[in-house]
Amino acid sequence: MQKTSRRLAMVAAAAVAGLALAGCDRGGAGASAASGDMTMGDPDAKVKMVEYASASCTHCATFNNEVFPAFKTKYVDTGKVHYTLKEFLTPPNEVAAASFLISRCAGKDKYFTVLDSIYKNQAEMFTTGDFRGVLLRIAQSSGMTEEQFNACVQDEDALKALDARVTKAIRDDKITATPTFFINGKKIAEGELSLAQIDTAVAEAAK
Fold this sequence. Notes:
By secondary structure, this protein is α+β, with helices and mostly antiparallel strands. The protein has eleven helices and seven strands.
């Protein structure tokens, strides 16, 4: 479980600018990000699951890599659960912010695919320290050019929208750590979540 603060969230824009400048020899130009949360599944499903996650959170990566595929197959793809991901920032904030921005810039239909790639390559980023290089590679594999990548992570409007979402999560939803999970408005976990725990919560919510 990883934590952040409102102050850290508010400096996300400056942090992402730092990420871009740290690799300024690699170039850049891009796409704009849409606002709002990203979702999967049938919006009319009786059970609705919300995950507050950070792209730089190791526990979020564990859930994505080890639990989410089975959850998606069992519940989302069958129309039983509507899933919403709410973006949050944990240190290093600039990495989380840039990750979410490029996922959005890749296009709504590719958002979860790109974010999945980021989680699967998160260990490499932390081990090598080459955050920009790994994110650029992932962005390019989704069809973005290096110029688009650089413009994407420096998009001030997108950064402000991301900061507003994070600030709202902290202020209104009292989120302090990732991952945090809700089912039908009830918090079921703060930290890693197993498929067995999801099974129990979904069964209860579906009654």
